[in-house]
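Appendix B, example 12.
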Amino acid sequence: MSKRQSSTFRPNDMDGDTVIGANENEESSGGCAMILTILCYIIVVFTVPLSLCVCIKVVQEYERAVIFRLGRLVSGGAKGPGIFFVLPCIEQYTKCDLRTISFDIPPQEVLTRDSVTVSVDAVVYYKISNPTVSVANVADAAHSTQLLAQTTLRNVLGTKNLTEILAERDIISQDMQNTLDEATDRWGIKVERVEIKDVRLPLQLQRAMAAEAEAAREARAKVIAAEGEQKASKALKEAADIMADSPAALQLRYLQTLNSISAEKNSTIIFPLPMDLLTHFVK
């Protein structure tokens, strides 16, 4: 029993930290642990079937159970899904939900690189990738991840300009995801996605940006109108040159104008004059 417990998983060993006096503690408690374990097995055998109601546990497909025996992690990793056995008095277990969990980051007041204060909130999606590490290495994995997400949001947005925050949300979300995933890997947590929900600007800045956008639209409208007038004048000049070279075209235009006037204004009296007479006066 003592040899088996000497190879028990320890989160400090996984992280590269040394455990001072771990071997001595295992040797000193090995005999006591073996005695207590034997006594528990004897109690369970003599109290069957009542003991089965206490010892047999069930975890769902999306759950895992991390078992501690006399304060140490039981070898073999997390148990489940299905039925597993827990010795009374000397073993305790903790359930971990492996489904994807989401939480909202409260609105954070962030000072951007160009000295603009904005309020930004986001949502984070994560799940537990290693139940044993998430239980042994951090006291409250969910709460720790939330606090780290708030700090990461401020740090990432503090290095961006206002224009970058408004236009590059996907890049900012990816940077936050990479930073969070790297930090929470030691906690057995995998950050799957980070999304920026809303960026709220101060009221004065909103008015200034609206005025700037309106001025830009007005300037663009004037440029478009000027270009249209220029094209129309060129077309009129070309039409006038064609009519000057072709008297028949001028006569057709004259008749078309008379038709339009008679159709729209019936009360108007028109005295048509021959084009040859007008040409004589023009000369």
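The chain has three domains: 2-97, 101-201, 226-282. The chain has a mean pLDDT of 79.
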